[in-house]
Amino acid sequence: MNRIPAFLIVAASAIALSACQATDPASVISIDRAQGAEGNIASLTQVINNNPNDAEAYNVRGSAYGRAGDFSKALKDFNTALKLNPNFYQAYANRALIYRGMGDLAAASNDYNKALQINPRYDVAYIGRGNMYREAGQLNNAFNDYQRAIDLDTTDPRAYNNRGLIYQKRGQHNQAIEDFSKSISLSPSAPLPYNNRGLSYLALGDEENAFTDINKALQLDKNIAEAWVNQGLIYERRGDKTKARNAYARAAQLDPKYQPAQDGLSRVR
């Protein structure tokens, strides 16, 4: 197995840390899939007007507002849903996402805890609370929540991808690869697990599989700065400074504050 030069190990470690601690904006507004069906807000409003005591209708419209980034209206709808049905555990978990998006982690934690008190087998709440813990750097708590969801036979790919990020952060790359692979099997069109698995392959010196996965991630979404940096790392390792520079430059264009991109550019200029 080829050894990775020291500067690549340092760079890859920095990327792994960034991947593990960064907040995925999509995760903040991604509402429980079972309760947050897409729909036209106007038509959902009409449903509510026809039946103003329908807690589910408020919950679904709150989900739609959350996806649209209108957190104040989403919060109002979830509050109404919970007033109509105080045991609506899905609405608690959905409202927790809104609180997370607003930066009120204490309120989000309370809502996740309330959802799990009502339904201790609700995998979505474990995953959501785990994401909140992971973003706060409480990796052991996050790992335990992802594990609980997995023990409940969740089919949500986030549980495996995000547990894989913690394995990756701990340097347990074989376990991370298994989790990323499971996440991919559950959602083959999601780009981030490919990128994450590629990084673990790279850490283990498996350049070919790493390159394949990272390119797959970019094929699915060309706007992932981290994936461009990872591609640049491999080109740099191969001595192709031109392609490495192009990859780092693309990453820097997408995210000018992404330090691994700037570091890569400084090395290959």
Topology, pairings included?
Layout: H1 6-21, H2 25-29, H3 41-50, H4 55-68, H5 71-84, H6 89-102, H7 105-118, H8 123-135, H9 139-151, H10 157-169, H11 173-186, H12 191-203, H13 207-220, H14 225-237, H15 241-254, H16 259-268
Helix pairs in contact: 1-10, 1-12, 1-14, 3-4, 4-5, 4-6, 5-6, 6-7, 6-8, 7-8, 8-9, 9-10, 10-11, 10-12, 11-12, 12-13, 12-14, 13-14, 14-15, 14-16, 15-16
Brief descriptors of the model:
mainly alpha; Serine Threonine Protein Phosphatase 5, Tetratricopeptide repeat; Tetratricopeptide repeat protein; signal; repeat
Q: How many strand elements?
A: 0
Q: Give the helix/strand class.
A: mainly alpha
Q: Which series of helices and strands comes N to C?
A: HHHHHHHHHHHHHHHH
Spans where pLDDT lies below 50 across 5 or more residues: 1-38
According to CATH, what is the class of the domain at 31-119? Mainly Alpha
Q: According to CATH, what is the topology of the domain at 31-119?
A: Serine Threonine Protein Phosphatase 5, Tetratricopeptide repeat
The gross shape turns out to be elongated
Number of helices: 16
What is the residue-mean pLDDT, rounded to a whole number?
88
Strand content: under 5%
Question: Which value, in Å, is the CA radius of gyration?
Answer: 20 Å
Description of the structure:
By secondary structure, the protein is mainly alpha-helical. It has a domain at 31-119: Serine Threonine Protein Phosphatase 5, Tetratricopeptide repeat, CATH 1.25.40.10. It is built from 16 helices and no strands. The chain has helices at residues 6-21, 25-29, 41-50, 55-68, 71-84, 89-102, 105-118, 123-135, 139-151, 157-169, 173-186, 191-203, 207-220, 225-237, 241-254, 259-268. The protein is elongated and about 65 Å long. It starts with 5 loop residues before the first helix and ends with a helix. Residues 1-38 have low confidence and may be disordered.
